[in-house]
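Aim 2 progress update. The chain analyzed this quarter is reproduced below.
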Amino acid sequence: MSNNLSIIITLFKTPLNRLKILNQYKNYPILIFDQETKNNSEQISKIIDVNFEYFHSNNNLGLCKSTNFLISKVKTKYFLFTQADIKIDENSIENLIKGMNTKENIIFAGPVFNQLKSANEIKQLEQNYKLKSELDASVMLCDLEKVKQIGFFDEDFFLYWEDKDLMERVNKSNFKMIQILNSYVNHDAGKSTPDNTRVRFIRRTNFKYGELLFDFKHKKIRVIKILRQIFQNIFFIPFNLIVLNKANIIENISQLLGIFKFIKFIFLKKKSKNVKIYEKNEHY
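Predicted structure tokens:
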């Protein structure tokens, strides 16, 4: 077990019974940020048999702000950014740590997803890593000091596309990302948050917002694309109302709200002239 690793995890209306999986990190310090909820620290302590630091907000601050807040509390050399639907054993975690020393300037190390190899297959590998230009950001081992140099998630994002933006910034830096081929996880995707109309609405709205924001930040934005999507969604709303297609109506409205959220961001950005749009909420 490494003494140089902390576990950080953000929650958003995560069913408490899902948190039993945190027992797999019993040998590491755990930092939890719980969003849009009452203080659940006592309830969580009854479910998991591990020590943890707990922070919470009554508001949904988004993945980026909550994650960056936890990173500011990390005191170890490395931290594992993970989720409540990730299953990983200690051997795989330790292999991630070893992999950070495989090459110079490694900032992130990621595992192999949902695919196990036998001991013989591992021995036959020419090397136990691959340099990557992109990792699955649902679980990554991160070097704290290197992260401080380029930042982690851009807080202009809320829920989606922040990982794509992060990878782009890493690829433009001198740092490298690596996948460790003898480190494995199972990802039961989508099980860490409830699946209801409100949550789907939030996800789809912020996916569209994040997509446009990513294009804007990386100089790929096209006004014609935005205008076309506005008119397309406005056109299809009455049709989907007539045929009573609830799923498509939610999709159309959430797409429009995502676009308008992006337009509002641009308007406020120009108006404020380099003043941050989103200020940190210190009331945790």
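The longest helix spans residues 246-272. Residues 274-284 have pLDDT under 50 and may be disordered. These observations will guide the mutagenesis experiments scheduled for the next reporting period.
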